Amino acid sequence: MSITLVLHEATRTGAPRVGALIAKELASDEDVHVLVLKDGPLTPWLRELLGDGRLTVLDGAEFDFHLPFEDRLKSAAALLEKRPDDLVYVNSLAASVFVLAAKARGQRALIHVHEKADEIVHLMRHVLTKIEVMAVADGAVLAAGDLFRDVLDVFGMIPARTVDFGIAIDIEAVRALAAKTPSPALNAAGKRFKKGKRLVVGMCGHASPRKGSDIFLTTAQAAPDCDFLWVGGWTPEESIENTVYEDFLARKLPNLYVAGAVDNPYAHIGQVDLFFLSSREDPNPLVLAEAMVLRTPLLCFSKTTAVADRLGRSAILCHGLPNAEDAARVIKACAPETLRSEAFRVLADSWISTFDLKEKMRAIVELIGKVRAPEDEPPQGGDENEEVAL
Q: Could you read off the pLDDT of 121-173 as tens digits, one per residue?
């Protein structure tokens, strides 16, 4: 079977990283071609994995949300026409124009949903997804089981062929990359980060209000005796949504360091004493699993994720929405020697086996098999008693 797998961007963490790992596993048995709509640090790894013949990388201009949706739909159809594969696997609602383009061409399409209700509505406002997507998709993959309700609330339906994929990572690859020397991380004054006796608090992601870059900056200012390390796009060139970049330059906090959109974020995460998920919304964040695999203690807020019930046993979990006041209070109460102790670093060990990518891939392969030989299954509606098909 030939498969086109569409990534909306090429970051080393989050949804694109999940899609790349899925492509890696599928490529061992299927003819897989990856289409990246916006270049980034994940591209070299994909090129090494797949080769240039099975990778197409765009600069993002053709699918900028400022362009009319009809133009983006035509561009998607033209790209699919160049390689008319049996199945189009769209990794994120941010690229869901390819679901509609595939169905218009008579191709089968799967949609991998990483977004909660608020983010789905945000994507709709920017016309990056449309209400018709779930009605025409042949199947859906959910980044967390709780997203079943989010999809139903916004779209009013979900494909009957739906799997709860959850978090899946290449455990050994993450650990191997974490052992490498990290690239420089600098504060606003250009001083290079160096780990010492001070507590190191980290976060990884594309800086934006959704990822809580403002919360992270304010927390760093409120806890001057700790060092804060942001790993991921931060400058306007790397992350146009970072609303606090000017504040970062103006305040010149000596304890806030930025690594930027690096090829290897794990070398930085491995230096962190406490991983602080500052995101306002991150339903099933891959980066939490990656931090856990590196045995890095976590600080999270219950309203951010769909896995708060489990985090309460394996992390420092604060109730409610993320905010700098509570985060700083907790961080200032943490001693570096405590978080670096074996007692803290074993908290997440019971989770690690549940992240195994090869086990998770069985559900994807089964879903693809059902889509390849579909049965007459109606879309699921909003019945409270309905369950995700596993």
A: 999 999 999 999 999 999 999 987 778 999 999 999 999 999 998 877 788 88
CA atoms within 13 A on the CB side of 172: 1
User: DSSP per residue over 114-125, as a string?
Assistant: ---HHHHHHHHH
Helix (H) or strand (E) holding 33: strand 31-36
* β-sheet with 200-204: strand ranges across: 256-260, 227-231, 200-204, 274-276, 298-301, 316-318
Q: What 3-state class would DSSP assign to 32? A: strand
Checking DSSP bridges between strand 227-231 and strand 256-260, what pairing results, if any? parallel
Does the predicted TM-score (pTM) go above 0.85?
no
Of 239, 344, 232, 257, the C-alpha closest to 294 is 344
pLDDT tens digits, 288-313:
889 999 999 999 999 888 677 777 77
Residue 52 tokens, joined:
């240039």
pLDDT tens-digit map of 249-290? 999 999 999 999 998 999 999 999 999 999 998 876 888 889
